[in-house]
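The protein record filed here:
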Amino acid sequence: MIWLHTYLGLITGWLLFVIFVTGTLSYFTPEITYWMMPERQVIVIDEQQQNQTYVQGQRYQVEKSIDYLEANATNATSWRVYLPTQRDHHWYVQWSEGKTRHLVSFDKDAIPIETTTDTKGGLFFRNFHYTLQLRGYGGRYIAGIAAMAMLLALFTGIYTHRRFFKDFFTLRKGKITKWTTDFHALIGIVTLPFCLMICISAIMIYAIMYMPFSANMHFENGERGVNKAIIPSLPALSESAQVIDKRGMKKDILYSAILADLKIKWQEPNAIKRVTIESPFRENSRFIVERTKSLTVSNRAERLVYSSYTGTPLEGYADESAPATFRRIMYGLHQANFATIGLRWLLFVLGALGSALIATGLIIWVNQRKTAHLNANSHQLGLPLSLRIMEKGNIAAIMGIAVATSVFLLVNRLLPADMANRADMEVNAFFIIWLCSAGHAIIRPSKNAWYEQTCIAALCYVTLAIVSLSIPFERTLDALATLDITYLSFTVVFALCGVGFITLARWLRARLVHASDELVPNTMPANVANTRARKR
């Protein structure tokens, strides 16, 4: 069990560390996107005001959205209106004409935003978390294999550290090797339920994809056939329905009936997340309202269906089967869209500890093998190739992702707003810096590489905190005037990360100096040394 636990961690350790780091950042996907698009403004007001302006606020946003769509999307077969939330403050409409997809965002005054920042935002970390930027090349299979290996490593780790209480209260502060080993065991115990939930839910999300044998045998289109069979949908609308020539939906009937019904059924403020209007200029047009996910563990919220021109409730979606419901609950647990701000920070901390669990495991193995090799082969110079690869790989994986993430966010602020392919440039910068980190780790001595890359990370995060305040400075002033805590908190987090890496760099510097002092040769003259030896 100990052997299996060790080598499962070694084989998949670098990959799991990157997946855990990006997954931890994904708990704040909307917030990261909000910071990376400074043109966005606070639209949703605080909860006390929401209770007073619940109907008026969302009614106003839906009305203005439909007015815009009626004027600019007459050829579309369906419209979608996405209402802002307290997390992302993104209000936009979407429609398609043929193969062309249109998206228009609005500010708080319902004025279309002409230019938006071209960026992947927080979705980059979320997509990289489960596709590894290899969506068409088996990235999800690789991530799934890593999740299965992690699950097996957790169970073998339970056996390895089966003396839970003794390990939990053991933390030796002496030698760094013992301290790291105890810290690894402590984190493993604390994060065990979280890691089990994350791994099991990750596997269940794509269970059909990982084991497609039954689906391919019983359904014509395999996985797609299964999804079509178990996911409830509405009947298709008839295209022969009468076309309504007059523009402008009967808002006095539509909104008074629909919002009155919603106020009874959905009593929380700002309950609507998305509105879909199918066949908007036909008599049989449907008005589909989707609830926010704040009150459900599932990744799919409740949906209600109405007639667009009478406000009459229509037959909605059928209930999902138990397996489909279970999969959606697993999906919801993994994404944690239901989590409040406090719970989200708790999950973030657990994800960070899970990343530390993997990192310390990798470092422990290298240090133990390195010490054993030096003790057994003190007359030989250098380390075995396999040990050098692991040591260099740890630096590239652990410090490389830290530096690359800071550069990704830094480039978002420094690139010109009108640059072509700007979002791709951000992603390219992330991978180029990560590759440079790996090259630096290869050519430099390991202790120097750890120290130097930690200094680079500290410099990047301190610079990021300064840039967050100053570029654009008008956005910072607006955030201070409106007490936009979400936007301002990024500067605080960047500064704390900078302080943390500075502290780590000082500690590594002290160890580097201590190691160099031990290697200083004895420069005492030979005759003096012989005289002292005879006296002793």
Remarks:
- The first strand starts at residue 78 and ends at 82.
- The two ends are 53 Å apart (CA to CA).
- Residues 165 and 274 are 48 Å apart (CA to CA).
- The chain has a mean pLDDT of 85.
